[in-house]
């Protein structure tokens, strides 16, 4: 039986859905971050459970043919990416296998085709950055957390971020540092600057910065705004967001527009999207087009269908669908996202779509009880997946097709199993999309038919 601090030699046989390599010693599974299939490593055990343990690399004895040198200078410390050490081609294979394994193991589907992973940009693809601010050795810094901690790794040039995001972050940190505005300290609850969020409209070149603070009237606020204007003259809009709660949630509920319109715009497939600080929008624009085009394809729209888009956010999938449907109804719980969705429809002169504010679980159950029918239901829930009550409501409504978009293969497979119970629906095909290169995350879109 392995125990903590043991040094072992192990061959990595697979990569988990969290992007960690895994091998076995006498049947005991050992998870080793930053390894890849085919690596032989010397590793130090850091924790053990009854059937598995975790270890960290001490030495790479024989590197896998899939191993490459990470491009990021802080990759060994940062928890933002966990697959940069694997060739991009192998990352695509890993993600397809993660999806396929979940579909079979959790969902119980044996003969459903899981296609090769679709890919867009793999470098500098992220249009959104959220960086915690803190102090390291007396110096104000921003970056990303180390794995399984809230210790900040200073990051000046993130390789997966759009260059505008890096530029904006570095200059705001410079201004905060020069003005000696204190960063927030989680342990004491003291300090002012908590996070810096940046967003880029890749097609429009518009940029947004959101500074998350504990007090909207903080000392030197005016000086900070003046410095930011000087350092970032092309910044489209600056927003101050207030979060004074002891929480891991980044953004608070109150936002104050300092200058600019308080939002930026992005253009995709000739559709203009208005993006506010609290709005959900996919972080990889080209990956989003691949994903949503596949969703539209799976909906098999002819122009005669009525579509419901549950968890619609600011209406991105809804507007893609509206081009080819008779009518689309979007459902979203975040008020600002609903406001943006309505504005997006108006901006694009799309009149066959409407948006309802509320919980998808409650509204779908209500629609089912009223006997409402729609030809297609689109699901794009958060990582936790759908409530079972919503899935049951869909089965009662009996749309001809369900298109399920997910960022979590495990909860996706669980929900697909419920939808397909009693042969109410048939899972026809599954398409992984690499929305998040160099990380263990993968987006998936599935086609189900009655």
TrEMBL record:
EC supergroup of this enzyme: transferase
Species assigned in the record: Alkalicella caledoniensis
Residues annotated as catalytic: 407 (nucleophile), 407
Protein name: 23S rRNA (Uracil(1939)-C(5))-methyltransferase RlmD
InterPro entries: MeTrfase_TrmA_AS (IPR030390), MeTrfase_TrmA_CS (IPR030391), NA-bd_OB-fold (IPR012340), SAM-dependent_MTases_sf (IPR029063), TRAM_dom (IPR002792), U5_MeTrfase_fam (IPR010280)
UniProt family annotation: Belongs to the class I-like SAM-binding methyltransferase superfamily. RNA M5U methyltransferase family.
Domain TRAM intervals: 1-59
Family annotation (Gene3D superfamilies): 2.40.50.1070, Nucleic acid-binding proteins, Vaccinia Virus protein VP39
GO molecular function terms attached to this record: rRNA (uridine-C5-)-methyltransferase activity
Keywords: Methyltransferase, S-adenosyl-L-methionine, Transferase
Gene: rlmD
EC number: 2.1.1.190
Biological-process GO terms, alphabetical: rRNA base methylation
Keyword Aminoacyl-tRNA synthetase: no
Matches recorded under Pfam families: TRAM, tRNA_U5-meth_tr
Residues annotated as binding S-adenosyl-L-methionine: 282, 311, 332, 380
PANTHER family named among the record's database cross-references: RNA M5U METHYLTRANSFERASE, TRNA (URACIL(54)-C(5))-METHYLTRANSFERASE
